[in-house]
Design a protein that fits this description.
Strand order of the largest sheet: 13-12-11-7-10-9-8-14
Protein name: Oxidoreductase domain protein
Order of helices and strands: EHEHEHEHEHEHEHHEEEEEEHHHEH
Helix content: 25-40%
Number of helices: 12
Distance between the termini: 55 Å
Radius of gyration: 20 Å
Structural class: alpha/beta
Organism: Caldicellulosiruptor owensensis (strain ATCC 700167 / DSM 13100 / OL)
Shape: globular
CATH topology of the largest domain: Dihydrodipicolinate Reductase, domain 2
Number of strands: 14
CATH class of the largest domain: Alpha Beta
CATH superfamily of the largest domain: Dihydrodipicolinate Reductase, domain 2
GO molecular function, one term: nucleotide binding
């Protein structure tokens, strides 16, 4: 198979990371089209990456026979509709996180993937880091023993100007949430992928430092895992000036701490951590989460490479559509717990109750 031809829809900030990832894989991929309802944005991205075909009508772009894969970089609440249209047009799809903001929409993406026999992959680029791959391997090998405690911390900073920069930011309708759904989802995915599925949450969410948004800018959740471990998920966009993300795992036989997808600490009672550390390659920590531009594109490059390989070989990528559903479900369960003041068990039977309760606080924010 020759080069896969990509089209990007949504030419905002994150689209540049996707375009750069495609450009980095020029032997196997080519960006041939861009689309945005704001023509100026589409033209700017096209100019920056030497793209000739510019669309302002997404459905017209999908008619282009020279596009094999569509990368969706639009506001979160638009992801499912666009992914389904692309899959029904027999295009493979890469969707920026979150896959969408409700479970029913997430399920539509999964159904479209299966119905059309195409690959749909949800961005969770940190899974591809050497650090997270090593932690997953160690967990699968049982090196930590029974997991006792696991924590995920995303203490970033987003100014009010960040939220004001786009009308959809900080809204329930299109952002689908705040510090959890937009920022902390990265490490929420890491903790559930590495440690195991979450079985129960009890949470508090608050809107404290941003008076013009209706979603949370701080959240704390106590969690239980199916394997019996307990833990904590913390996320905020109010920690000035922005701090490093952390994933901590403590088991009966060993412990690990990852900071910004770099392994900071690894200890085993039997002293075998040296064997693993000899082969571990430290990666660039990348920028701390002080702004929406604090993104290291290396993870996106690795995920694009994985998807390209899956398409060419007819195999599954590391993160097919169904994998992207898990962190969204955890976040919705956290919202429901905060809004009801009660623990919430997973899996959720549906997201009807949480969406109804969110409807009641639209325009108000979480009361702390």
């Amino acid at each position: 198979m020759s080069k896969l031809r990509f089209g990007i829809v949504g030419c905002g900030v994150i689209s540049k990371t996707h375009a750069s990832a495609i450009s980095a894989l020029s032997n196997d991929a080519e960006l041939v089209a861009v689309c945005d309802v704001v023509e100026e944005k589409a033209r700017k991205l096209a100019q920056d990456f030497g793209v000739k075909r510019i669309y302002t009508d997404y459905e017209k772009m999908l008619l282009d026979p020279e596009i094999d894969v569509v990368s969706i970089c639009t506001p979160s609440g638009m992801h499912a509709d666009m992914a389904v249209l692309a899959a029904d047009a027999k295009k493979h799809v890469i969707v920026e996180k979150p896959m969408d903001i409700t479970l029913s929409k997430a399920d539509k993406i999964i159904e479209a993937q299966n119905r059309n026999n195409v690959i749909i992959s949800i961005i969770s680029q940190h899974r591809y880091s050497d650090c997270m791959q090593l932690l997953k391997k160690l967990m699968n090998e049982g090196k930590f023993g029974n997991i006792v405690l696991a924590t995920s911390y995303t203490k970033w900073y987003r100014s009010q100007e960040y939220y004001d920069s786009c009308s959809w930011r900080g809204t329930w309708n299109l952002d689908g949430g705040g510090a959890l759904m937009n920022q902390s989802i990265h490490y929420i995915d890491m903790i559930q992928w590495i440690v195991g599925r979450v079985s129960e949450v009890f949470a508090y969410c608050a809107t404290r430092a941003h008076n013009k948004i209706e979603v949370e800018d701080a959240a704390v959740a106590c969690v239980k895992f199916e394997n019996g471990a307990i833990g904590e998920i913390v996320g905020t966009t109010s920690a000035y000036p922005g701090f490093e993300t952390r994933l901590e795992i403590f088991g009966e036989n060993g412990s690990a701490i990852a900071v910004n997808t770099q392994l900071e600490s690894l200890f085993f009672k039997d002293g075998t951590e040296k064997v693993y550390l000899e082969n571990y390659k430290k990666e660039d920590k990348g920028a701390v989460g002080a702004s929406s531009a604090a993104i290291n594109e290396e993870g996106h490059v690795k995920q694009y490479r994985d998807v390209i390989n899956a398409i060419k070989t007819g195999t599954k990528p590391l993160i097919p559509a169904e994998e992207g559903r898990h962190p969204v479900e955890i976040i919705l369960a956290i919202y429901l717990s905060s809004l009801t003041g009660k623990p919430v068990k997973l899996p959720l039977e549906s997201d009807k109750e949480v969406l109804e309760r969110i409807e009641q606080i639209k325009g108000k924010g979480f009361c702390s």
